[in-house]
Design a protein that fits this description.
Layout (H helix, E strand, L loop, with lengths): L14 E4 L4 E4 L12 E10 L2 E7 L8 E2 L2 E3 L6 H13 L1 E14 L7 E13 L7 E8 L9 H18 L1
Parallel strand pairs: 3-8
Antiparallel strand pairs: 1-2, 3-4, 3-6, 4-5, 4-9, 7-8
The structure holds zinc ion.
Length: 169
Amino acid sequence: MKKYRYCPICSEELAERDDGERTRPVCPNCGFVHYLNPSPAAGVLVMKEGSVLLVRRRYQPYRGMWVMPSGYIEYEEDVEDTALRELREETGLLAELDGIHTVVSVSDDPRGNTVMVLYEGHITGGELKAGDDAEDVRFFPLDDLPPVAFQAQRTILGRLSRRYRKGRD
Ligand SMILES: [Zn+2]
């Protein structure tokens, strides 16, 4: 996670201030406090006959590994719109959301911690085709998953996979 060294408001060098619980960079000149918060992200879980839609990452981090379609929420963007936009951009598919599957903290992204809202969705149109950020896009059977990036996504898919196996036995 990159931290500011200089105040983004007045350019003074930041100093560390301990408030008893944690240390935060603050500006001795204008009082700006550099809060470190996780960035919000949104994604979509799309299932089809026991298979899950995954996207192969074209860029770092975890290049070449697979993830559910997801991305950062833009400042003015509604969280549901982010989920649908990322799905469309990365997979070419249009969908309707069916509700929130789960909300998770992601702490193994070197770009910084995130909180991801993961929706469930079903496809309403479009054509399956890897987008700019994706090397490949495919449905994988839950019992035959490729290497998945991010611990939180592995946990979610592992849980789904166990539930699916139980339902089938
Ligand atoms: Zn300042």
